[in-house]
Amino acid sequence: MRSHAFALISCLLLAGCTTGEAAAPSAAPATTASPAPSSATSAPTPATAAIPTEPLRLTDEMTRPGARLRFGEKAIVPVRHYYPLLKTYAEGVLGIVVQRIQTTPGSEVQGNFDEDSRAVLKRHTAYYAKIIITNESGNAFSPGTPRFTGEFGDFGPAVTVTGEMRLPSCREGYPPDSDEFDRKGAEWKTCLLAVSSRSRPMTEVRYGGPPYGKEIQFEQDPSPDFNKHYDLGAITWS
């Protein structure tokens, strides 16, 4: 996972995106869907200019690829960020808790919308899930913009609204800097927001940062492309 200033405009996370959540979680117990990679990652280290020579890997304590969790259960995931201005890398371990999906009338969604978009919002429902991200490794690093998506079934949300969406009860906030996220247990509370119809609700939230999903590779990134080792299976909350 990369920390680029312009990556914040991507629909990876949170209240400005058009990925949503559903009204009711399933009662299935947490299961794992695929085996873990065989290699373990080394202990997180301070930010370094050294270019990584190995992909992110999972230790026994980390959540398995393809795992299905209940809302409220914590996933433990490795992350690696590249800071292009400093030309340094940092690795760490995140804890992620996705809370139960909630709903509110679409008319409650705020933003600089035109009259047509306002009318669309009034006819639809906002789905949102609060997310708690914690520093599990204890070293200083920024959590960046974790890659979350809401799942609506085969066709996605029933409506897409142009523009940044805001909801008072679903505050995204900005990812903390490394000097604010520098100890074990440091916490960032954020939120995922989407708008859809009642007939096409959001029922799951997925995390797809590497190694669970593919890495977003930019042309100017100096590190190798490790995607042949990634895309092992997203973590899903329902």
Percentage beta strand: 15-25%
Give the count of structural domains: 1
Low-confidence stretches: 1-13, 15-42
Strand count = 9
Which whole number gives the mean pLDDT?
82
Rg, Cα atoms, Å: 18 Å
* Strand-pairing-aware structural class: mainly beta
Quickly describe the structure:
With 238 residues, the chain is mainly beta.
List keywords for this structure.
single chain, 238 residues, 3% helix
Describe the structure.
The protein is mainly β and 238 residues long. It has one domain (1-30, 43-224). Helix content is 3%, strand content 25%. The protein is built from 1 helix and 9 strands, in the order E-E-E-E-H-E-E-E-E-E. The chain has one helix at 115-122, and strands at 68-69, 74-83, 88-98, 102-105, 125-135, 148-151, 187-196, 204-207, 235-237. Strands 2, 3, 4, 5 and 7 form a 5-stranded antiparallel sheet that branches. A 4-stranded mixed sheet has the order 1-9-8-6, with no helix packed on it. The chain starts with 67 loop residues before the first strand and ends with a strand. The model is unreliable at 1-13 and 15-42 (pLDDT under 50).
